[in-house]
Design goal:
Number of helices: 12
Radius of gyration: 26 Å
Keywords: Membrane, Transmembrane, Transmembrane helix
Strand content: under 5%
Structural class: mainly alpha
Shape: globular
Protein name: DUF7847 domain-containing protein
Largest sheet: none
Number of strands: 0
């Protein structure tokens, strides 16, 4: 909703739009006794609690009279306490279900824009390359021209992806920040609240790209220089060195991807600048690096698997159409359409899933390191008392509300 309120029943007749109606307001004190039944925002129940406390019994490992702690509040997509891995993955899926129009709609548009350059280049490749239709008569110029078009389209797609995914990450992070409290947000409202942070977000991703890509460029230049000047018998050794360096390059990329995983959230939700957001992410990851690294790596693997499973049939049909259809304009169009549909369907699921897991991991690190769960729980109780999720809940993510400012 563009007015900043959560997904709640319509305002009854006779009530002012500025004044929240008494949606079954709880008793005078918003705090309830441990074990008592509670009801979440917008009719969503908190994690299941017994209707009456269990009586103490002897023989419990914690001694006679032990009572289990009350369940954590869960007004939105996650329980308001430090999260387990399964709860992060589940929360990312719940983000889809709680706000499907905004999340999937924005992701589909982003994926479609990114897929067009690759599809056009692929169509050009099949329309012009005789290496498939007439490989015997194919000349080196035919091969180089087709490959140049294919890789040129991929580079253009990467540049477009950098811009589009940057915007999408900022908007989805804003939606996720509200969904933690059980509120929803339209795509228009998410863009209105996020657009002022886009320059800082581009600054973060630009710095990350320099850190991750600069060593790769230096390595490629060195390899090319060695290949040009080395004797023929040394080429095999150079290939072996390149092959051995691939896993180190991947680990280098994943190290900094994990270290700066929370920088977009720090920009959008905390209002920080690029360098400050990257320092903030580095500090949050410190002390729990291997856990963050493992979750980021697992998320990347899951997204890669889902993307390949969904996109493989379309890629197969597109390639078959390009190879069997000959070098015609119709073949190029059909091949490009298959690739666009496959990439869009896969990316509209993987883009928001990866952004959601990163956002929830950011919330988990703040709850573990800054007791931020107490801030979220206090706010959730007050919002339950009022009966709605106002857009002022977004301000709770500011670092002044935790011990980590």
């Amino acid at each position: 909703m563009s007015d900043g309120h959560g997904s709640l029943p319509e305002t009854p007749p006779g009530w002012s739009a500025e004044q929240p109606p008494p949606y079954s307001a709880p008793p005078a004190s918003p705090w309830t006794a441990p074990g008592s039944p509670q009801q979440g925002l917008a009719g969503q129940p908190y994690e299941q609690a017994p209707a009456t406390p269990r009586p103490p019994y002897p023989g419990h490992p914690y001694g006679h009279g032990y009572m289990p702690p009350p369940p954590a509040l869960r007004p939105g997509i996650i329980p308001l306490r430090p999260l387990r891995l399964g709860e992060m993955l589940d929360g990312a899926i719940k983000l889809f279900r709680s706000n499907p129009k905004a999340v999937l709609g924005l992701s589909a548009v982003a994926a479609l824009v990114v897929s067009i350059p690759v599809a056009v280049a692929q169509g050009f490749f099949f329309n012009s390359a005789t290496i498939y239709t007439d490989p015997v008569n194919a000349t080196p110029d035919d091969v180089y021209g087709a490959m140049a078009g294919l890789f040129g389209g991929s580079l253009v797609s990467l540049a477009v992806q950098f811009v589009v995914v940057t915007i999408l990450t900022g908007v989805l992070t804003r939606i996720l920040g509200r969904a933690v409290f059980g509120g929803t947000m339209s795509a228009a409202e998410a863009w209105r609240l996020s657009r002022g942070r886009m320059p800082a977000l581009f600054g973060v991703l630009g710095l990350m790209a320099v850190i991750m890509v600069a060593p790769l460029i230096v390595f490629v230049v060195l390899v090319v220089a060695v290949v040009v000047s080395a004797p023929a018998e040394m080429i095999g050794l150079v290939d072996l060195v390149v092959l051995l360096m691939l896993p180190f390059g991947f680990l280098y990329y994943m190290f900094f991807k994990s270290r700066f995983a929370f920088a977009p959230a720090a920009v959008v939700l905390e209002g920080r600048g690029p360098l400050d957001a990257m320092r903030r992410s580095w500090r949050l990851v410190t002390g729990d690096f291997w856990r963050v690294f493992g979750i980021v790596l697992l998320t990347w693997v899951l997204c890669l698997l889902v993307s390949n499973i969904i996109g493989f049939p379309f890629s197969l049909f597109g390639t078959a159409a390009g190879v069997l259809g000959g070098t015609t304009a119709v073949t190029a169009v059909v091949s490009a359409l298959f690739l666009v549909v496959g990439y869009t369907l896969s990316a509209m699921l993987t883009y928001p899933f990866e952004a959601a897991v990163a956002g929830l991991l950011y919330a988990d690190r703040r709850m573990r390191g800054e007791a931020f769960d107490l801030v979220l729980q206090t706010a959730a109780v007050e919002q339950q008392r009022q009966g709605w999720v106002h857009e002022s809940a977004d301000d709770l993510w500011h670092p002044s509300n935790s011990a980590g400012s």
